[in-house]
Design brief:
Monomer. By secondary structure, the chain is an alpha+beta fold.
């Protein structure tokens, strides 16, 4: 090289605008022999040391006072392993040169990453502690195809972007570097000179642990060990299994009373897990725990998809929490948000100076409802980043399933948009074909790579086949939230009972489409915020009627076909809306037995009784599992249906949604004999009026409702009864 060329490259390197540092730094064979160049700001003396002998081979000359050193190693032509003896401020340090190591990504991984089909991209991207050529350090990789230069900055190099510029793998748009002595526990970021020459400081998209807000650095840490979904946990996720989900926001389930601070993962392990088990739930669903900058998003605006939030402790403490849940017989579901991300500067937004993860057109890439950005699902690296994340939580943390947030906003281009605010797809339609393809691919991948895991869609439209296999034209989810059932039944329950006769179909309509999807019946966090009031407060009447209505509604819900979900606080009838900044109102259960204690006991008994009778869950999604016995008694607002299991065992559910007791209420049954009342929401045990049927009722040979046998019951006011036939 000419002196002028050398000087230009040195200036570019030192100014942080040299895109190919490996062509200049490190050891190179030249016509004059071996040349070693190093960038070591503030160093006063540098020697090349032969690793195998410890012998000094050459002293590097400082060609630029800003820290550029160079030497020709005399009498050596072949490359050899070396270290650098560097003197900083009078103290000599022996270091390994990051620029003596070759490319990091193997050919097959590079090909799969470029194609966007790498099953586990997180094993190669991000920061990974490693040993290369007997040197301990960390290998870093980041996708930024349009950047002019990318450096790793962190605690190991004084956050100085000049010290560790990365190698660019042009064929896949990835920058990589192995940094000796960078170790787990140290913080880092990527310093990027973007496509426009602007300097950006970015957190690692694949960071496995991160600082808690407002700090934003990533942390070097190893991948968690792989886990397997045990056979009993796989069975607990089955279509024919009892599934009762307790949805929890970890930051507000319970707080310390002295300072209103969050419980830690360890404290949640000691308090939440045994509580959910005692209450009879089968699954815990955690609202998003990915690292996120804004508490008020409840985790639904994540920027660290691969990092559990540090708000409640370390990643390993979170893994311990999950293990404790499994040991208690609880499966764990995680709220997962692949639909959008916030625009915070340290995150994915304009990552390399271009709209890399998001669409450039705001009609495609901006969520008006949430002031967030939409992933470009058609870009294979983006869909691979997300699909890999889904497997990561299941495979590396033992998560048993994912509830996917806001699916409707992903699969429709015109979601919540006016006519001129969206871009049609290639065929002129409103469907987001790339998002649909991504969801199908992710669900198919989990089915093959993590058998026994499940995905649940929060999908608010009538998109066909959400919980049907992709081979049948579906999206491939295992379950779908039944938001139609939720809205209809809550609309019915909030009515004054005198008006319910005119809206009878709100309670029956769900059965007309029940077998089109595999449904979960959700009373989620969305129903107790933003002025909607608590579930209890939606019930009409005085305090007695409100609680009676709620108990009757829960009895109806737990008997109805579909898996169950209750948001925290619903199980003891919290009276106010949920507030993420404070604890649930546990004080309502203190100071003596109350209506709230009664509802809590009812939910516990509903869960345990539900799980004890296969008729209530085994055939949720098959017509043989349900039959109306009384469907048209709108005058009395009475409903009676029967649930069946595979062996033909029956459980009758009878609801009276008026405050008027119905004595001698007769309806036909398929099986004669003695029937036992196994649950009565009006029981005094639940603070009801204690009206019932004295435990057992014998059927009569009187025909009714087209059946040869019938039962005559007392239906308490605002109540639901469950009855089973005794052998």
């Amino acid at each position: 090289m000419s002196e002028l060329a050398d000087r230009r490259e040195i200036n570019a390197l030192l100014s942080g605008h040299f895109a190919d540092p490996f062509s200049l730094l490190g050891m190179h064979q030249t016509a004059k022999g071996l040349v070693v160049r190093a960038l070591l700001p503030d160093a006063s003396e540098v020697w090349v040391i032969e690793t195998s002998t410890g012998r000094k081979c050459a002293q590097l000359e400082c060609l630029d006072g800003r820290g550029f050193f160079q030497a020709i190693v005399p009498r050596r032509k072949n490359l050899f392993r070396y270290q650098l003896a560097v003197t900083w401020h009078g103290q000599q340090n022996l270091i390994d040169d990051a620029y003596r190591f070759g490319p990091l990504l193997p050919e097959m991984d590079s090909w799969l990453l470029a194609e966007g089909t790498h099953l586990r991209p997180y094993e190669k991207m991000g920061a990974h502690a490693d040993v290369i050529d007997n040197v301990i350090g960390t290998r870093f990789s980041v996708w930024a195809p349009n950047a002019q230069r990318v450096s790793v900055v962190g605690e190991f190099n004084y956050w100085d972007g000049r010290r560790h510029p990365m190698r660019f793998r042009r064929e896949l748009g990835v920058w990589e570097l192995f940094i000796p002595a960078a170790r787990p526990g140290q913080l880092y970021k990527f310093e990027i000179v973007d496509a426009h020459g602007q300097l950006r400081l970015k957190a690692d998209p694949y960071s496995f642990e991160a600082q808690m807000r407002p700090q934003t650095a990533s942390m070097i840490c190893g991948l968690p060990e792989k886990t397997e979904i045990a056979p009993e946990r796989q069975r607990a996720n089955g279509f024919d299994a009892p599934i009762s989900i307790y949805e929890v926001h970890l930051g507000s389930w319970r707080r310390h009373t002295d300072n209103n601070f969050w419980l830690s993962y360890k404290e949640l392990e000691e308090q939440l897990v045994p509580y959910a088990k005692e209450m009879g739930f089968t699954h815990l669903e955690l609202m998003p725990i990915n690292e996120h900058p804004f508490d008020g998003s409840w985790g639904y605006q994540p920027l660290g998809l691969y990092a559990p939030t540090r708000r409640f402790g370390t990643r390993d403490e979170f893994r311990s929490f999950i293990a404790a849940a499994h040991n208690a017989g609880l499966n764990v579901l995680l709220d997962w948000v692949p639909g959008h991300f916030p625009s915070d500067e340290f995150g994915l937004s304009n990552f390399d100076g271009t709209n890399l993860y998001e669409h450039s057109d705001p009609r495609e890439g901006y969520h008006q409802d949430w002031n967030t950005l939409i992933y470009n699902f058609g870009r294979r690296e983006v869909s691979n980043y997300l699909a890999g994340n889904a497997l990561y939580w299941i495979e590396r943390f033992g998560i048993d399933g994912l509830r996917v947030d806001a699916v409707a906003s992903m699969i429709y281009r015109d979601y919540s948009r006016a006519e001129d605010e969206w871009v049609p797809n290639y065929y002129g339609g409103r469907e987001n074909l790339e998002a649909i393809s991504f969801l199908r691919y992710t669900n198919r991948t989990l089915g093959h790579a993590a058998p026994g895991s499940i995905t649940i869609a929060e999908e608010s439209t009538d998109f066909n086949g959400v919980s049907r296999p992709p081979e049948m034209g579906g999206l491939g989810f295992w379950f779908k939230w039944n938001l139609g059932w939720m809205h209809d039944t809550l609309d019915y329950m909030k009515l004054d009972p005198v008006h319910r006769r005119y809206h009878h179909d709100l309670m029956t309509f769900g059965m007309l489409y029940n077998y089109t999807e595999n449904f979960v019946l959700p009373l989620s966090h969305d129903e107790v915020v933003h002025g909607k009031r608590s579930i209890l407060d939606r019930m009409p009447g005085d305090a007695w009627q409100k609680f009676a209505n709620l108990r009757a509604y829960y009895g109806w819900m737990f008997g109805f076909p579909g898996k169950k979900l209750l948001f925290m606080g619903n199980e003891f009838a919290q009276g106010r809306e949920w507030n993420h900044d404070s604890s649930l109102d546990w004080h309502l259960l203190e100071g003596g037995d109350s209506w709230h204690n009664g509802v809590q006991r009812l939910v516990r008994d509903l869960n345990h009784t539900y799980r004890a009778h296969p008729a209530l869950y085994q055939l949720d999604f098959e017509p043989a599992g349900f039959e109306w016995l009384v469907v048209d008694d709108f005058e009395n607002s009475v409903f009676v249906y029967v649930r069946r299991d595979r062996d033909g065992n029956e459980l009758i559910v009878a609801s009276n949604f008026t405050p008027v007791p119905r004595y001698d209420y007769r309806f036909g049954v398929s099986q004669g004999g003695r029937w036992r009342e196994v649950l009565n929401t009006d029981s005094g045990h639940y603070h009801g009026g204690n009206l019932g049927n004295c435990g057992t009722i014998d059927s009569d040979d009187w025909g009714s409702h087209g059946r040869s046998h019938s039962l005559s019951l007392t239906l308490p006011p605002l109540s639901t009864l469950w009855l089973i036939r005794e052998a």
